[in-house]
User: Fold these one by one.
Assistant:
Number 1:
Amino acid sequence: MAWRIIKESSPWASFMAEKYKNDVRTGRSNLWKQLMPIISDIKRESIIFIGSGECKIWEEPWCIPPLSKPPVVSFTGLLAELHGSNSVMQDVMHAVPEYAKHRLREMVLSNTPDRWVWTGASDGEVSVRAFVRRLQQSPRPRSTWNKIWLKEIPNRINAFLWKLQHGVVTVDSFLKAKNIPLASKCRCCCEQPQEETINHLFARSEVARRVWRALGLGSSTRTRLDLRGIAKEWFDKANQKTRSGMERILLFSLGIWEIWKYRCATTFGEINSVPPDRLFREQMLGIVNLRLEGVSFSSQVSPSV
């Protein structure tokens, strides 16, 4: 889908590209939000073979690296339009690097369409298999929360973590983004309630701070870490092949779930409270020990988490 949008190979793809490519609103399509990083990855490893010159001169890979628009140049059109105006061509030639000047001098337009070619495959075309293989070979770090579906994590928590990772947990900010009017107030804060967002609820609310302090994150949750930082510290850096690593992963998962349970109980008027730190930690470690019972690890050392 992303490749079709880049090439604008169908009326639907052209419509999507034209509608959203310059859209900077926070309320843009969820589909487009998910496609944007994929489109960026593909474009970064693509080149354009020039035919009729219907690609834009700026930010498009007709030359490598692509050109950014200099402030002194007002022209923002297509290569074909550039070749049709000697005065504009001269202005552009004075402002672009030497490699782009050489490319422009040697360029000969034709009647054939411009052709996008992806360098990640021998045939120049993007497929799901080729794109996944390219990502697996990439030296970039794996995305946060990549251990969500470990079998040691309870099923209901697996599913909830997936929703949390994709930002579809029904906190107040999510509902407001769907044009549902409401006065937001975090149910997990008593002293200074703030708007209920995912990051606030699970990282900075009063209940979240108590949970993470009891489980070992301490004051860093308030000052330096947001939810993404906590997940990276407790998921990405945890070695699932060791017991201590699995303990960290499970404690994080259970902590998230306990915060959500408290929030829901408070929302629906149920009496609920977080136990004292030591008791809460012992309860969570008890659940962890049950989940890891009978599991073999490459290292059996289990330091305190």
Note: The radius of gyration is 26 Å.
Number 2:
Amino acid sequence: MWLLVFICMLSVVGGVPINATQEDTSHATGVLVSMLEPQRSSSETLEGLEDDVIVQEGDILIPEDRNAVQNLWSDAVMPYTISQELTDRAFDIHAAFKMISDVTCIRFTPHTTELNYIEFRNGKGCSSYVGCVGGAQALYSAPSCSVGNVCHEIIHALGLHHEHNRRDRDQYISVEWSNIMPGKRSNFEVKQRDTQNLPYDLHSIMHYGEYYFSQDGSPTVLSKSSGVQIGQRSHLSELDVLRLNSLYHCGND
């Protein structure tokens, strides 16, 4: 356990702002991702377990050791493997990598002998641990997961949480508690996490969409800024880029 903790660099995880347009639901035919109507449900809103692993907030996996330290990936490099079940999704996974590597110093390399690495597995939906938790770390992707969904999960694995859980979120969004599915209200609770002193981002790829966990098709999260649609999965926002580059000390060499 201690070996895993020392191999990963300690992380400072925080939230980012959002301004969502629509979430893409199609597979990429290139690096460009199509933008469709906002989803009333999402591949990121799992309601059960993923391979007997506890899921919270719809797509965040909880380590068996609840006190496990969430770390950054050493040298801003994330080694990975893709399971045989997902070979037909390899293009989408690499497109998601490119969404991140094009705007940050973070790199993705096929796993060789590294102790810590991401293992892309077929799943019920899209889900990931937050940060480097050590060893072969599962990241799940279902056929319904778009390139943007996969990118969202990779960013979780890099160390970022959901934007809508920030402690300052009530200035920017309203949570429609009466519209949330029974038993899912905890997914919308404020979490005391590091914000890296960056403003709230309604445009973040890490923000919930308007209808996540809706029990009747009514909005569960609404932006307080007129005309701003939250929950986009087509690109990293400027603040997403700033947060990742700050977290991994890009350009500080």
Note: The chain is about 15% helix and 15% strand.
Number 3:
Amino acid sequence: MSSDAEQQTRVSPCTAGYHPVVLCSDGALGAPGRAPFDRIIATCGIDRVPTDWITQLAPAGAILANVSKGIVLLRDTDTTSARAVSGRFLGGAGFMPLRSDSQHYTPRSPVTDVLHATGGPGPNATDTAADATVAGPDMTTTVITHPQLDREFALAAFLTGLLADRSQLVYTHAGADPTGPVNSYRWLHPATGSWARVDLPNPTNQQPGQLTATVRQAGSRRLWDELQPALHAWHRASRPDLTHWGLTVTDTGHHQLWLDEPTATVANLR
């Protein structure tokens, strides 16, 4: 926050008759000098809930935050074994991301960087140029059943942001028409340099019900392999909306993604 914005934040509430305490510091560290808090409301985007927010929460307290692409309400689980918060996502959202030295902030990559890292904006899966651009000793290529992510992009972006923090998922269109059919998805995790690319075929060239896609991935994390179990769980549950997903977070930083019930774990987030 700039000094001008900080001063405005101090002055404006006073003119309306309110006198809040204004702190200018690393938000991921909370405000330990004023804890505990009954409610913590974060008006910034995060991919992981800072542990300091949990330890500074009062018993039976709650945290409302924008995690990945969704708003989640996390309540104190009131367990004696470990401090944790848990709750469902309320809907989709996207706030300006948290910037924190303590959280080793890594900005999301621009779309152009994602496209470059995954083979450029032009070639599709049938072009040898695409393989030459992104090929490396650790790149693998597999053929999968068409994931139809064009109908599920919001959910896919939500899941990818959770599974690989500060990652970026984008898509490209066939040809120059931005409203044309999607022909590829590109997913980049800047912190590790890992990436995944899903190239979709022209459906007119394949038999109905037998659509396939080509997946390329490389890096220390096999991103597509991490995403598939979550997509499979979602399909098995008849593709429910975002409000069926939930998150449990402990004061040690462990994040557990679940579907419908906290015991139905889909992924343990890194």
Note: DSSP finds six helices and twelve strands in the chain.
Number 4:
Amino acid sequence: MSSIPLYNVQARFKFYTSEDNLIKEWKSSAKSNTHQTTFLEGILLKSLEKNAQFSYVDYSVFFSGIKDFKRPAQPRNHVQSDVLRVHNHKFSIDVLGNRILQPEFYDEIECIVRDGVKQLPRTPVSKDSLYFLTSFHALERTQSMEEIWSTWSGAKFILWNCPRVLNLRRITFLKATMRSENFAYLILCECENGMEHLSVAMDFYETLKTRRCGLVGLYKVERYYIPPHHKTDK
């Protein structure tokens, strides 16, 4: 696994406590995402646990610029001059980076990917893709704390102990843009073959819960969506 992020990426996480809650709000929320000029893609995740605190989570990805390795790795608050050329099976378009400071938005602080996997896109590569999502409250946020995130968050434990058959693809560490956010930090782990080996995934999920490192959820892909752009010449 390697960690060399080239892009500044943001994600919006919207949590739904029930299917009724989802039906009332999800379509308008997803539509709002697609109308953002920096929106890249969205994934509606469904819990694999019946009594989960959050039955559904909408995970949407936004581009906020190209990383500047000559400066400290701090998110910039202004519009970026950086452009990302996005190629999809339906369209090709230039996206101008811009950081969004709103509730439910998170800055991607670090992204650890398996060798050969790119930072973007986040398109589920398999119908068997499965996600472990861990959410953390925090009384304070410090740089020193964030520098050792992989230890206290349980990310190192996942790296070393995630069953090989699940095919761990990516671990992402995210920080809320707003201090008022319910969850200050999130860890999202993507496994390519989770649904194919669901019993193994469930056992590992129970192991993560017993470690009491944040609120852990196990999710499958319910729906994937992209911006409503028309196809253009590549």
Note: The mean pLDDT is 88.
